[in-house]
Amino acid sequence: MTTHRARKRFGQNFLHDPGIIRRIVSAVAPKPGQRLLEIGPGQGAITASLLDSGARLDVIELDRDLVPILEDKFADRDNFHLHQGDALKFDIAELAGDTPLRVVGNLPYNISTPLIFHLLAAQGAIADMHFMLQKEVVDRLAAQPGSKTYGRLGVMAQYYCQVEGLFEVPPEAFSPRPKVQSAIVRLRPHDTLPYPTKDVATLQGIVRDSFGQRRKTLRNTLKNHISSEQLEALGISPTARPEQLALSDFVAIANAVYREQ
Question: Which segments constitute the Ribosomal RNA adenine methylase transferase N-terminal domain (predicted)?
């Protein structure tokens, strides 16, 4: 079988701990007939167990040199479908068709945030997501107002999904060992958005600009979008800082701005 050395430019750290693999698969709990998508299968540590469930599994792998390794291991499985390419450019909705995908991945830490935003944009085609991420990213995804880790990623993830941190994964579970602690997170799209916005692009802009200078007050960070008087009319203090606002507050601001456009 072809051997493969982890490549730093792809952010590769291959999971090899059997106990952690079992915990991840148990958390996903795949079942026959379901549609699964694994992003960055690597050398197939989790892939085999996902296939054993009887679910149909599509995998997206960027590294061309890993393709023959995966094909050698799994090409004889009828429920295995390999796509070589960049997950950031992949049309998730087209792949899903009429059946929402359950997405799984040990995401390269260097692209985890843009990839999560890419997947959130396709949340209508996704049933749930289970990811291995840098623990710091999981903390940001699940952060609540008032937390130092609360920011753009958490607000937008929670707009679309319920976020649940599951368990931590130590560096020694990987080869090579990463220099950071990892964790598993579950993202489950809301059946009904708790605070629907009139325009997602406007909300994204408000959240981005609010946290772009997070130490400044809303009066300063949002002065090009909304006046202090308008913020007060919404029951939001112009002297508040962005980490003090709940998701519902950001949606209220975005809706007010959208009405004025």
Answer: 20-191
Binding residues: 13, 15, 40, 61, 86, 106
Residue list, annotated binding site for S-adenosyl-L-methionine: 13, 15, 40, 61, 86, 106
Structural fold of domain 200-260? Helicase, Ruva Protein; domain 3 (1.10.8)
Q: DSSP of 194-240, one letter per residue?
A: SS--S-HHHHHHHHHHHHHTTTS-HHHHTTTT--HHHHHHTT--TT-
Mean pLDDT (the chain, rounded): 91
- pLDDT at position 20 is 93
Q: Domain limits of the chain?
A: 8-189, 200-260
pTM of the model: 0.89
Distance CA 245, CA 238 (A): 11
- CATH architecture classification, 8-189: 3-Layer(aba) Sandwich (3.40)
